[in-house]
Every structure is written in structure tokens, then in C-alpha cells.
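Z., the sequence and structure:
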Amino acid sequence: MEMITSRYIPALSFRWLTPLYDPLLRWGMREEVFKGRLIVRAGIQAGQEVLDVGCGTGTLSLMIKRAVPGARVTGVDGDPGVLSIARRKAAQSNLHVQWDEGMAYDLPYPDNAFDVVVSSLVIHHLVTTDKLRAFREVRRVLRPRGTFHIVDFGRPFSVTTYLQSTIMKRLEQAGDNFDGRLLPMLRDSGSTRAQETEPMNTVFGPIWFYEAANANT
């Protein structure tokens, strides 16, 4: 496996594009649909501690809080600019979410801190070595019986998605995703019951839902 050094890639690759992030996902990728499906698949319950890794502008974290008001939701991201947007959106919605600055591969939390970890369109931003580091960090912060739920770019499942992936895999660090390497990485991190559960197409290419459990389950 190629060893690539860590580097931070902001939303849409460039900070000056950050204001376009929410509109692009909303209209170009049916954001409410795939994030809604992720929440259903996660099966979050009142009283659970939930972590949104790479929360960006906070859309998924706030959707979770609306869907399960009794859950304690934390969003973490390495970009203070998008976190300021997330805080503003939460204040406007009168929803309480804890917003923290931190990287997916170096989470600022103790072991066994969360019942559920979710991640939406974040993993493809990470270089190969950091994807595996992030999966190991998620395993560390999950409690026994905890679960990890991802939606991100993945392997093509049709002629159309194959053509899309040949273009999109050149962007950022998405090659691992489109080449189908996320599932082996999840298993290599020590997670159990790792699986791809459902594909969905978008204008930017195929996305997949992935699920895994803490190895201590």
C-alpha cells in the first residue's frame, strides 16, 4: 500500500469554496436523502453519545439532534472555518450540539467515549495512511457494542458509475474509495462485522453506506 504523508484537505479542496459547500451538497448530491438514510441505519437512541467525525458545517449533526433530541451529539472537524458555520446554524436552529476542533485520525476524546460514530463524505479527503489511522481512532473511542456508520464515495456498481469514478478518482484522495479499499481498511483496523450495505448514485459518482462494530462487541 502506498504511504502518503498527512495533509489537510478542506471542504471542496479550497477554503475559498467553503461557502458553496452546503448548496452544492443540497442540490447536487441529494444531501437530505443520503444523510437521512445514514441516520436511520445508525439506529440512534435517546441517551446515547454520538460523534460526527468530520462534521463540516454541521448538517448531519443537526439532523441527528432533530431526529433524536435525547441523544448527546458531538461534531468534530479540523477546519475552524466550517465549525464557525456549524455553530451559527445550531444557534439559529436552537439546537445544542458540542462542536470540537480535531482531526479524524487524532480524535480529542478518551477511550470508550461514544456509542455511535458517524461520518459523511469525509473519508475520501484523507490520504491512505490517515484513512486507516482514522478507522483505528474510531474503534478506540467507541464503547463495547458501539457502531460506526459511514456514507462516502465507493466502488462503481454500473456502467454510469464506472465512468463517473474514472474521473472522480483523480480528485483529492478518492482513489481508495472508488477502488473498493475502504472495506478492507475497516477490517484491518480491527472493526468487526464491517460491510457495505447499500449504494446510491449522485452527480459526482457512486456513494456507499458502510457499517462496522467495535471489535470488543
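The chain is about 35% helix and 25% strand. Residues 20-213 form a domain with the Rossmann fold fold (CATH 3.40.50.150).

Let me know what you think.
H.
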